Amino acid sequence: FMFADLNIPCSSNRSELTERIVQAKKLGYNVVAVNRTVNGKLQPNEHTCKWKPVVLPDVQTQEKEPSLVFGRKNFRQLSRLTVVLDNANQVHSLNAASPVIRSYDLFAVQPTTEKLLQQACTELEVDIIVLAQDSRQSFPLRVPTIKMALERGIHFEIHYSCAFGNENSSRNLMSNALNLIRVTKGKNILFSSGAGFYTELRAPYDVSSLAHLFGLDFQSAQNSVSLSATAVIQHAYARTTHKGVIAAEAIASLPDHDKQWKVPDNPETPKVGEKRKRPQ
């Protein structure tokens, strides 16, 4: 599997954005998504994706041991759109056929009311839902609503860069994350940086340790920067193509704990061309 940071905020300063993407690659990420956040109604002429992947210099990743390198060596840059939902009129225009939404690889929403959250969880074709991060959550998270989103393959995102702000921001992030993890039972949690500066980026294993500190078990914490991101990308592909997506991995590339499903070789099984012996 791969490591991914699916929230690198977009910037009009191309060199500054390149600096953050280069830093993410150095830290060992295989995929990054450059995120554009939009408030209000989408305008085709203004909000259609015009971003192009930046040309990166040849950099060395932080990983030294080959056994610690996961996924493909190719570095991918994706585009992402996040729409802040603050009124019900926006919901009707956020459909899968929207040319603005289809111009991006990933699509996320950030509902600001409980009713809009319910609509996002049950109606909207989205890949990621973003809730309050460094500010206090203004409405309750109800289990039935969140469960609907989980069943539809939607992931909930936590921005770990908020932990590096002031004391109040860190406290709110911890409280919101604990509440979200409690309601979701640790399922479909995605940790992203949301980093506005390259100094706020952290290596994948550091992020998984932080996720574990926030209440995820060890495996779920590691998945929050790897398999969850893979699931989001596959969900986005299925959303845009209206087809199912199957991920295949070579058996040799699976870690030992994932090989338990293999059927052990039976020495009594006849080889090709041999007859099966009848029991005496």
TrEMBL record:
- Which species is this record about? Vannella robusta
Instruction: Name the keywords, alphabetized.
Output: tRNA processing
> Which GO molecular-function terms appear in the entry?
RNA binding
Protein name listed in UniProt:
Uncharacterized protein
List the Pfam families.
RNase_P_p30
The record's similarity note reads:
Belongs to the eukaryotic/archaeal RNase P protein component 3 family.
Name the Gene Ontology biological process terms: tRNA processing
Disordered, as annotated region = 257-280
The protein's matches in PANTHER family, at most eight in alphabetical order, are given as:
RIBONUCLEASE P PROTEIN SUBUNIT P30, RIBONUCLEASE P SUBUNIT P30
